[in-house]
Write a structure and sequence with these properties.
The chain is mainly beta and 561 residues long. The protein has 3 helices and 33 strands.
Length: 561
């Protein structure tokens, strides 16, 4: 009976193949999920019971409808991301599961006769059962372009929204949805939970040695910390402060053990202070070299093995079972420089001269629908950033930080729009500003990035109950350069509004105020547009007080061209 059902299922599958007339797997630079949705393999052996177990299927590598092999049908290149599969197609025991391990399924140039899939099964299965894609070919299509591109989901393979949202995010891949009349794009959006700060470093996780030789001496103590980096290249808060004095008189280097695996983390960055420096001024250790040609992506400088699953922020690899990455230690020989970015945190520790980045790393990202393709090189939407307490008069507060890919803005005419909404309780500030800083290697001044825009307004009276601020600013690159101080960006238009809210939807004292960018009116130079960078969004007020910290509720970055 089972064999008869399997034959029927196989015939049904063939009929569907003919009817759907699926496109080729890869057409015009786009990969069609439906071209990966109609492969099938057959169960050779299976466990007699339910629960965790393994099935053996043949052939070991299935084929697309166009005849090409799906060499990464069951797991991503390098391992880690497993494809949902439907087992027992057309039978009463049909179910969709996601494997937890595979063996012999990605054999490169050879075509194995069988491969083994391990999963937890609710039903029993046996020889002759048909196994097909469990997600309409979406993950298989993504596996075929690990270095990035566009996956098209059309209406020929019964794809659902749930299939798309369940797909493991690849920051280099956008999903083009053509199932309906209007085209729709799905791009990664982060959750509301901030990625954790790593545990404080210790004399075990940080060691110093003269092999290899370095520039650190025992006449000084150095503050060190590390920060996790998520799949979209956004950094979390740095680990708590830790100080270490090298043992040898001269010639020391530091070796930092990778922090333990943490939800959402695929890499980590390293920060070390100057001699006898402070935690607030721990400077970023460069993990790549400054490019020598405009448009070139920087290469690793040997400090550590970089993660390859994200390329927005160069980061040392950390263990992550979802993406199949392993941990890599970092060995630092050169002293950090005060022209580099400082460590991100989630508390208000800025001063009038030190602008501490506000960590924006997230534990989770999912594909979400939108009207346009997402931005390759940064996140398009960030949900609320954490702030601990109200900042004092004239003291800046970085309310949000976005990490950007090397070279993201390094094209003449490249334009973006940055918009956000921020809130606080009663504010008596008479002059309020939202500022923007470009924060990158080799261009800063001892804890301070370069201001590229400033929106200012003067509320006529205090916002008595709740203040709600809205802002947008456009930026365009006027000079591209490979050097650390050769690029220029100009603000080309912006607006800043505020309103007092007495209760939900009701205007309160202060009513409304508005302003624009009247401070920065020409191109700002001496910027590093070739290396990775941060865009810091800063709130500052003159006179008066805020009831609570200004919280950035949402931040968007949109490419204009």
């Amino acid at each position: 009976m089972r064999k008869a059902l399997s034959v029927i299922a196989f015939m049904l599958l063939g009929a569907l193949n003919c009817y759907a007339q699926s496109p080729l797997a890869n057409v015009g630079g786009k990969v069609y999920a439906s071209g990966y949705a109609r492969w099938h393999v057959t169960v050779v052996t299976a466990p007699t019971g339910t629960g965790a177990g393994s099935i053996t299927v043949t052939p070991g590598i299935p084929s697309n409808q166009d005849g090409s092999q799906v060499t990464n049908a069951f797991v991503s290149p390098g391992g880690g991301i497993y494809t949902p599969i439907t087992v027992g197609l057309g039978t009463a025991n049909q179910e969709t599961v996601t494997p937890t391990a595979v063996s012999g399924c990605n054999a490169g140039s050879t075509s194995p006769a069988t491969c083994t899939l391990t999963a937890t099964f609710a039903n029993t299965h046996g020889p002759g059962d048909i196994v097909v894609s469990g997600d309409a070919g979406i993950q298989e299509a993504m596996n075929s372009i690990p270095n990035g591109g566009v996956v098209v989901v059309d209406n020929t393979a019964a794809a659902t929204d749930a299939f798309i949202t369940a797909t493991v995010v690849n920051p280099k891949i956008a999903i083009e949805d053509t199932r309906q009349t209007a085209e729709q794009w799905w791009t990664p959006v982060g959750g509301t939970t901030a990625i954790a700060a790593p545990a404080v470093l210790t004399s075990t996780t940080v060691t110093n040695s003269t092999t290899p030789a370095g520039s650190y001496t025992n006449a000084n103590a150095y503050v060190l910390c590390v920060a996790y980096v998520d799949i979209m290249g956004q950094e979390g808060a740095c680990s708590p402060t830790y100080s270490q004095t090298p043992t040898a008189a001269t010639g020391n280097s530091f070796t930092i053990t990778a922090p333990v695996a943490s939800t959402g983390a695929v890499g980590y960055t390293v920060y070390i202070s100057l001699t006898n420096g402070t935690y607030q001024l721990a400077y970023k250790v460069p993990l790549v070299t400054q490019p020598t040609a405009t448009g070139a992506y920087p290469v690793a400088n040997g400090v550590c093995t970089l993660t390859t699953v994200e390329t927005i922020t160069p980061a040392c690899s950390v263990a992550n079972t979802v993406y199949g990455t392993t941990a890599a230690s970092a060995t630092v020989t050169a002293l950090t420089l005060n022209t580099s970015p400082i460590d991100p945190q989630v508390t208000i520790v800025s001063t009038t001269s030190v602008y501490t980045p506000n960590a924006g790393g997230r534990t989770t990202y999912t594909y979400a629908p939108g009207s346009r393709a997402g931005i390759v090189g940064t996140v398009g939407l960030s949900l609320p950033f954490t702030i601990s307490a109200a900042d004092t008069t004239t003291t800046p507060s970085v309310i949000g930080t976005i990490n950007m890919r090397p070279g993201f803005m390094n094209y003449i005419g490249k334009s973006i729009r940055v918009c956000g909404k921020a809130t606080t309780t009663a504010s008596t500030a008479t002059i309020t500003s939202i500022q923007f800083q470009w924060d990158a290697m080799g261009q800063n001044t001892a804890g301070k990035g370069v201001q590229i825009g400033s929106l200012t307004m003067a509320p006529p009276v205090a916002f008595a109950t709740t203040a709600v601020y809205g802002f947008c600013e456009d930026f365009t690159t006027t000079v591209a350069s490979a050097s650390a101080t050769g690029g220029s960006i100009i603000p080309v238009g912006g607006e800043f509004t505020g309103i007092g809210v007495a209760s939900a939807g009701t205007a309160g004292a202060g009513s409304a105020a508005a302003g624009n960018d009247s401070t920065v009116i020409s191109a700002v130079g001496s910027l590093n547009l070739a290396d990775d960078a941060r865009l810091n969004v800063i709130y500052v007020h003159t006179t008066g007080t805020d009831g609570t910290a200004v919280t950035l509720q949402g931040l968007t970055v949109t490419e204009l061209n």
